[in-house]
Amino acid sequence: MLAFNMDPEINAWIDDQEDAIIDFLRQYITYRSPTEQEQEVQREFVEPFFTDQMEWDSIDIVDVSEEQDRPNINGRLSGKSDGEGRTLLFNGHSDIVDVSEEAAENWAKDPWDPIIEDGYLYGRGANDMKGPNTAMIWAAKAVMEADTELSGDLLMSIVVGEELNQQEYGSIAATDAFLEEGIEIPICINTEPTNLEIHTKSAATFDFTIEIQGKEVHTSQKNLTRYPQRYGIPVGQDVGVDAAMIMADILYELRDLEHQWNLRYRDQIYGSGGYQTPDTQGVGPIGINCTIMEAGDYIAAIPGHAKIEGHVFYPPFVDDRELWDEMQEVVETLAATNDWLKEHPPRMSWKSVFDWPPYEVPVDHPGCKALGTAIEATLDEQPVYSGFKAVADNSYIQHECGVDTISMGPGDISMGAHGPDEHIPTEQLMNATKVYAAMILEWCN
Questions:
Q1: Which residue intervals define the domain Peptidase M20 dimerisation in the entry (predicted)?
Q2: Can you tell me the distance from the alpha carbon of 155 to that of 251, in angstroms, rounded to the nearest whole number?
């Protein structure tokens, strides 16, 4: 185990500030900040807190947008000038998935008026990821309030653009701003909700589209399109072709392919239960999600077209081209046995919106080991190393900026992230704050 200098006074200070920490998160949530509308929360809430309530040596606004309305907030607490300390970067995004009026009907709570009930704080962004951001901000504040002099730099980026894959405006720009100052960053902790597990790998994802051309006909004629008739009466594709029914067959085939993938791909960290002890996410690393479906134009006409748009999640050790080729093969095999599709083949495309790479950091990376030590010392439990089943800014910080990035944060994606009644356990929020503070002391000294 690494040496660890735990400061009980910092933990006591964090406990004393519980009401203030929760109040901070509640205020944070009241700012409605969907992607591309982050300016208000960043300028009116995060930046003033960094400036007035914290003791950063420098605070920079990094905004590479044309309209200068996508500000990232960077803070730097400089370490000693002897150069012996290690630099630690924390990263988290302020943008959230919006809640439409229709979606709000599925909420039992008000998404913008956070409340605490049975130990959970409810509100949009509580889990993904204003809650985790709150923990890292207050961990840094705790270290500052203790007047602890660090040997290495402590860096923090509160960024924009994550939810719509706009990292060029967010995490890439914010991280590059530090790197352009000549700062070497050996590890970044992105505080996405992980149930306080250390996520050393993530999924990757790509989007896809499948389109079927059919042939419209009055719905009263459907029997002629499907069943034999007396000789001389038009049948089948001479009458009409139901594109929606063909698409239904494709959906069943894709479901079976997804099942095969889940049996095929296994890994010690990602999708098999965590290491060294079981994780809390469940297994199954692959999903073929057909999320948007449309067919037909008129209720009294058999659909003359059908289209699905979807989203594939897959493990970091799998070639996405191989997966896409198999999806195409499934559709082409079906088409080979359908007289209509032989002449009107399905149209398929991928990577038009999402092409999100994975991240991957070895479990024995010094940053992983230090964070594991902080968890063990703070929570008196063994750290769990597992994989993030979704995607995160880590991938771009690692691939585009060259900074190894892992995730550990309070909450869990299953706690309403992108859905109704999003929430975070307040106990985890406080525990994460203590672990982050411990990590700062462990790593930067």
A1: 210-336
A2: 47
